[in-house]
């Protein structure tokens, strides 16, 4: 068994984030695939403020949508993306039309 000094142990703990916060290459590739797939399509459809969070190939959706049909369509499209192992959605329907003139899409792993 190798002995570590307190300084070595502290340095190692600071340098290595906990395993569950590391971005996997698989999740990074999936994030890029989602961004490329939806960036233009959501803007053309007039959907704004959708956020994709990816962890262990499970995509979590947050944001506001206009209709239940938007929810069904978005979840269905995300499920069809190669590499997606699950979809959790936390989308809210708004009654008013959007007044923003730009689209916002964010991805976070």
**Could you tell me the mean pLDDT?**
78
Structural class: alpha/beta
Radius of gyration, CA atoms, in whole angstroms: 19 Å
CATH architecture: 2-Layer Sandwich
What key phrases describe this protein's structure?
Histidine-containing Protein, Chain: A, alpha/beta, 109 residues, 4-stranded mixed beta sheet
Structural description of this entry:
The chain has one domain (20-108): Histidine-containing Protein, Chain: A. The radius of gyration is 19 Å and the shape is elongated. The mean pLDDT is 78. By secondary structure, the protein is of the alpha/beta class. It has a four-stranded mixed sheet with strand order 3-2-1-4, with helices on one face. The chain starts with 5 loop residues before the first helix and ends with a strand. It has three helices and four strands, in the order H-H-E-E-H-E-E.
Provide a brief overview of the structure:
By secondary structure, this protein is of the alpha/beta class.
């Amino acid at each position: 068994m190798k002995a570590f000094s307190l300084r070595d142990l502290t340095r190692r703990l600071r340098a290595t984030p906990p395993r569950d916060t590391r971005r996997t290459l698989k999740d990074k590739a999936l994030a890029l695939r989602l961004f490329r797939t939806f960036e233009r399509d959501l803007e053309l459809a007039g959907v704004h403020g959708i956020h994709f969070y990816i962890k262990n190939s499970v995509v979590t959706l947050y944001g506001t949508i206009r209709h239940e049909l938007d929810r069904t369509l978005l979840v269905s499209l995300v499920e069809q993306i190669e590499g997606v192992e699950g979809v959790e959605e936390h989308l809210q329907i708004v009654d008013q039309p959007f007044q923003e003139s730009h689209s916002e899409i964010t991805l976070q792993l």
